[in-house]
Design brief:
Number of helices: 3
Helix content: 25-40%
Number of strands: 6
Strand content: 25-35%
Strand order of the largest sheet: 1-6-5-4-2-3
CATH class of the largest domain: Alpha Beta
Largest sheet: 6 strands, mixed
CATH topology of the largest domain: Double Stranded RNA Binding Domain
Distance between the termini: 49 Å
Length: about 190
């Protein structure tokens, strides 16, 4: 029995793409910048706290991999063309859900809204859910001018705190790869 690898690899690729489909990617760049001038980069973000150090290592590794895949070379700060700032930002989201119960003809016909006719009591309930997601942020700074030339953010990369380290690594790698599909910008002088 012989197993063909291509269909399996294609299926895994589709699953990874589907997992990243709902993530919001935003990028911005300096329009006058010729990105082809950048050949080397230095990662300049120090590890955050002990709690974030593992996330920092994952993001750092993924950003480095993507920049090297774009043809840039890792260098020290003194000889780098680009400084690369990166990080995982904790963003807390709050969702408010409202629903009603009781009796009556709906919210437009009740005592609370029109105040005419028979009073139809209606109770409104609110349920508030909060969750925290990890958003990856990357800034590329021209080492000569010290100006940001490209920045990217991809939201909702993973739920925090991390419960599955292997899954977190895969999610970060896929998200950073998706983010760097927008680098270098197509309309720049690259």
């Amino acid at each position: 029995m012989q197993i063909e690898i291509r269909p399996i690899a294609f299926g895994i690729g589709l699953l990874l793409a589907a997992g990243c489909a709902g993530q919001r990617v935003t990028t911005d760049y300096s329009p006058g910048t010729s990105f082809s001038q950048f050949r080397t980069f230095a990662l300049v973000m120090p590890p955050d706290t002990g709690a974030q150090q593992l996330l920092d290592q994952r993001v750092r590794s993924s950003v480095q991999t993507q920049l090297m895949a774009k043809g840039l070379t890792l260098a020290d700060r003194e000889s780098a063309d680009l400084y690369v700032g990166y990080g995982m930002v904790d963003k807390t989201h709050r969702e408010v859900y409202s629903y009603q119960d009781g009796w009556g003809w709906g919210q437009e016909w009740g005592w609370r809204y029109w105040r005419w006719g028979v009073a139809w009591p209606m109770r409104t309930y609110r349920r508030i859910e909060t969750y925290t997601d990890g958003t990856v942020v990357v800034n590329l700074v021209d080492a000569k001018t010290k100006q940001v030339v490209w920045e990217g953010e991809i939201a909702d990369v993973l739920d925090l705190p991390v419960n599955n380290p292997d899954r977190a690594t895969k999610d970060i790698d896929a998200a950073v790869a998706k983010l760097f599909t927008r680098y270098p910008p197509q309309s720049s002088g690259a």
